[in-house]
Amino acid sequence: MKYEKAQNILPYNIIELIQKYTDGGYIYIPRKNENKKSWGENTETKRYLSARDKEIFNKYSSGMSVKILAEQYFLTEGSIRRIIRKQKNST
């Protein structure tokens, strides 16, 4: 998300109104519901994590221990167990 200068996009009377509530402060204006995007929609992260989690589950199913998986993927054993549980429930 990049910042825009209010004076470049808003009419002056709206800027004055906003200044009544927060003079010089930062505010976040959320997207309209119909324009919201789900997490990871703009990047490959969601796809990457999904593939990683399937890989972890397959290795676990083949006999690799939670401890080894945690070390291999730089995650906690609790995170590995959560991924395994999630993968078991999705199949």
Q: What does this entry show, briefly?
A:
This protein has about 90 residues and is mainly α. Helix content is about 60%, strand content about 0%.
Could you characterize what this model shows?
The chain has 91 residues and is an all-alpha fold. The chain has two domains: 6-35, no CATH class; 45-90. It contains five helices and no strands. It has helices spanning 6-9, 12-21, 45-61, 66-73, 77-90. α3 packs across α5 (77-90) and α4 (66-73) crosses α5 (77-90). The protein is elongated.
Shape: elongated
Strand elements, count: 0
Rg, nearest Å: 23 Å
How much of the sequence is in beta strands? Answer: under 5%
Features:
58% helix, 5 helices, mainly alpha, 91 residues
Secondary-structure map:
Elements: H1 6-9, H2 12-21, H3 45-61, H4 66-73, H5 77-90
